Amino acid sequence: MGHHLDEVSGPARVAAPGEDIGRQELALAARNHGLPLEALRHDITPPGLHYVMTHYDIPYAEGSPWRLSIGGRVRRPRVLGTAELTSFPAVTQRVTMECAGNGRALLTPRPVSQPWLVEAVGTAEWTGVPLRTLLAEAGVGADAVDVVFTGADHGVERGVEQDYQRSLPVAAALGEDPEVLVAYAMNGAPLPPQHGFPLRLVVPGWYGMAHVKWLRGITVIDIPFEGFQQVAAYRLRQDAGEVGEPVTRIAPRALLVPPGFPDFMSRSRVVREGAVPLEGRAWSGWAPVSGVEVSTDGGREWREAALDPAGGHRWAWRRWHFAWTATPGRHTLSARATDAEGNTQPLRQPWNRGGFANNLVQDVPVLCVDQD
Amino acid sequence: MGHHLDEVSGPARVAAPGEDIGRQELALAARNHGLPLEALRHDITPPGLHYVMTHYDIPYAEGSPWRLSIGGRVRRPRVLGTAELTSFPAVTQRVTMECAGNGRALLTPRPVSQPWLVEAVGTAEWTGVPLRTLLAEAGVGADAVDVVFTGADHGVERGVEQDYQRSLPVAAALGEDPEVLVAYAMNGAPLPPQHGFPLRLVVPGWYGMAHVKWLRGITVIDIPFEGFQQVAAYRLRQDAGEVGEPVTRIAPRALLVPPGFPDFMSRSRVVREGAVPLEGRAWSGWAPVSGVEVSTDGGREWREAALDPAGGHRWAWRRWHFAWTATPGRHTLSARATDAEGNTQPLRQPWNRGGFANNLVQDVPVLCVDQD
């Protein structure tokens, strides 16, 4: 009759038919937040508008020195302070990051977790030390398989008490394209607490779960990593019993800057008759975005949008724009991204039990009001 | 058979018994966000963790010059650029801001609007020009009644298309205690877009609706202001037909830094047996906080917490702390603030149709697990 973690920590589940958002999902939605979509106008997301999702609490890391240990199957294990990290040559990369669960709350049935609609995205310039530089210094053993990253965030999930941990295959950790960073700055300033102060991993092109925040340990191991966030969470499964496929890179997606103005409560968009310029952003972690199509009639007809130059930022979203003339009535606007490997967005929902890597085309209902 | 705003913009309503959070409330929760409560540890809320609530879209104010007009019943109407504002002597004030709707989603029945639990709060240092300096320069007419503040945020609400506007009585606008600011900096940096870039009003001690963001107009009028946000929204009413009382200053509230660690999904807190230091913050817009009591047994017994010095920051929250020894089992922790005018927090919910100015004592359920 003792008291154990399973009293407050249950298994994953899918919402029942017609089940609305409950108190637990609301508590997650109140603390985590998406990008207000009008902020897609900014090339680089201003501070505080980038999406944030934390599994447990944001660690309080003020005032005491931070240590990053590099160990396991390496020849020269090390413990580095943040000042030592900044003594390495710095690299800055512009990266669009997206939560693997983006779109989850629009799925039927709805996996019960952080209830994102489509807004779990943001773009920042991250500055830090290439991971491969640190691993080369440490001397990775020939038998290395995975590199495990440990954050300082601690909690319980489905009954398992844990520090947040994720791994990368050693080839990805040592890779140059994308080049993984141990980052200490975001948009030229120290990381904000919620983005991993003082250190986080940045894995360009991968969903957010790979970018371990509050990074305190890098461990090279000679077997595949089987931590909770690697083998229990963040897998693509239709049934709970499956091993599933790992969630890795970001599927292509385009979003619109919402045109016109909103109704406060319904968030419906209102425009007036005439020219309504449309714009938005598109990205893919698999290959550069090669095209964006726009529909203004609920997906019946699609036309090519104009793409702005990528500007050398392979891992950042790309701006697109499209001229639309609104007529009185109701319209549904959509944009659909395709990348250079031919990956595109589905018109009917993909579904998996975790609600991961969903990239269903966005629908934006718009009311064009009469002139009067 | 035309198309009009009322197609997408309905009246205010209260949720039906048992009605969970719907898509519209979720869309608000996904874009607005509260303070993750562990961030109560910081005296000043770090960038991006301060609560944010916007009625319509965040205006895009980059690249073009901003103009603030001061007019109406003044002798010398003016239009000021941001550079002219920064040429006045600057004042910096540390201010705790809270949304008037904080606590709304915990009410029964629940007013349907932005569904805050208890986290719609934050503290920042705001720098700007005292409003009374600007009004003295303009020369307020002897017949002045209200001062109206107009933001650049535009939308529709309950069928009324509008720029966001709020007013203050002329005595409050000219007052020294609190001293109202036209602020251009937050924590020493330009305002972030979501906090009103480039200019906002700061009204220390008042709920957030008074702190008009994206400020572009100050208009002195000789009759009481009857704009939507003054007479339709932000009133304390039991029935829809009442005139109601205006929402003004912040009622006292104390919140806890959540002890221990969370379960990801339930957000339940877990601690281990033994000493668990409790801490939190308390504030009131009516008078300085004079005491905080803590209960660790669901409100049966209350004991005084220790208050940190106020440090001269009258309008900022005050830190408190309390020593607790946890024993295995379930506990409910609460803190209750009282101010120097004797205002305190109710133990049973206050209720009004808008869900405004609710300051019910917070309950924090905690599980203390067995050592094993």
From TrEMBL, chains A, B:
Per the record's keyword annotation, is Iron-sulfur included, yes or no?
Answer: no
- Keyword check for Membrane, yes or no: no
Q: Which cofactors go with this protein?
A: Mo-molybdopterin
Q: Where is the Oxidoreductase molybdopterin-binding domain?
A: 55-228
- State the InterPro entries in the record: Ig_E-set, MoCF_OxRdtse_dimer, Mopterin_OxRdtase_euk, OxRdtase_Mopterin-bd_dom, OxRdtase_Mopterin-bd_sf
- Give all residue intervals belonging to the Moybdenum cofactor oxidoreductase dimerisation domain: 273-361
Which Gene Ontology terms describe the biological processes this protein takes part in? Answer: sulfur compound metabolic process
Provide the GO MF annotations for this entry. heme binding; molybdenum ion binding; molybdopterin cofactor binding; sulfite oxidase activity
Which domain of life does the UniProt lineage start with?
A: Bacteria
How far does the signal peptide extend, from start to end residue?
none
**Keywords, alphabetical:** Metal-binding, Molybdenum, Oxidoreductase
Q: What is this protein called?
A: Molybdopterin-dependent oxidoreductase
Naturally occurring in which organism (per UniProt) = Streptomyces fagopyri
